Amino acid sequence: MSLADDAERLRDIALSVLSADLERGQRLRLRVGPLYADFSRQLVDVAALDTLLAVADHAELARFRRAFADGEPLNTTEGRAALHHSLRARADDVPEGSMRSAQAAATEASSRVQVWVRRLLDEGLGESQPVRDVVNVGIGGSDLGPRLLDAAIADPIHGPRLHFVSSIDAHRAADLIATLDPATTVVVLVSKSFHTEETLLNGRLFVDWLTAALGEAAMQRRVFAVTANVEAAQRFGVDGERCLPIWEWVGGRYSLWSAVGFSFALAHGIDTFRRLLDGAREMDRHFFSAPLAQNLPVLRGLIEHWNRVAREFRSRCVVPYDVRLTHLPAYLQQLEMESNGKSVRHDGVPVDLPTAPIIWGGVGTDAQHAFFQALHQGTQVVPVEFIGIIQPAHRHDAHHRVLLANLLAQSAALAYGDDTRDSDDPLAAHKHHGGNRPSTVILLDALTPEALGALLAMYEHSVFVEACLVGINPFDQWGVELGKRIAKDFLPALSSETAASTLDPVTQALIREIRSR
What pLDDT, on the 0 to 100 scale, is given for residue 157? Predict the structure, then answer.
């Protein structure tokens, strides 16, 4: 039986009926360490799950999983391996070869991060100046990962305040500079290539500000770079000793485990950063060893494949019921849409299945009052992923019980609805909730560094599973480049009529309007 056959067979079966199947419930609920995932409110039964596992076998998922674990060059378009999981591995976790050398390089880089974190926190910046503020200047994976970590993890060391500058819009950088003391500020420039336009323009603002206020020598004590291009960073003015490494085999959206996490470690402590890596490592071990049918990233990847391919749902809503996970939807947007937003397979042949869904979302009860109306009664069915934290970091138990009650209620309401069609109420049609709208609930015991590391690694591996099922490369991002290249062609036209004359008519009209103001 095919996925399409299963979808047709299940089309009119209510989730209330599916939920009564005890075997199904057992197979669709899974605990791995501090994570508990419940997929039982997805529109899938045991037979469809078996079909999905057959699809995984046909796609040779187990073979690709082993190749990924062994460090084989799965990023075929760029001719390199994807070794980001080596960043949280230990020497006895990895085989000989590229994984072993990558893990050794990661260990050495981690030692350098540790030395600088302790030196800056213990010794400050000279002349009795402590580090009070850290500015992380980067974009994409150089920003989204550290930003997510900073908001999610409580500060056990009361370290420096951590700020983020990503957009090329100078309002953020200018406003932030106005609040900072250059004598007590550290700036971290994060760019693997050290050619990222947004990072270099913003970085120049901070380097010039520090130099004007303190002089070049003092500026160099305060500016760090995380990059694979040390020479470019040094030409920019960064002291070579303050250049921390990243490698071509680490994609930006997978880089928070590397020295890209330096600013987070500086603000929250190196021990907290290590605990994050340990949590991810445990999820790695589960993913690479557990049978496919009892494997959390695999199960989640199969469910997402089902929703996209068999049920033809084209977006997914992510709603964490914890304000500390405010940045999780944006982080997952990049992870999933940049990884799997492709239209050709590894071999360049057009893919014949839908790939990445649109990822969007919001936080908790705020989201309920913003867009849940459409989730419950709109014409588009959107699967929802709820993330809850069982033990909060505060003592306001009444608040937390209400928060969790809302999470549970929204998932139940989407699934089972409220049939008011036989009511005498003249507004019965307006109040009717059809239900049968799928959702997943993921619960973390507490939002510890270990649990967050496991959660993010679970998402990484799930994205890999989804890519394998449709035969695409999740480790490149050619679609990011075209617009950036065209922007360089358009830039002269904003100040020169001659340059604008060679552009298309619509762009010329827009530029005329811009220049007229």
Answer: 66
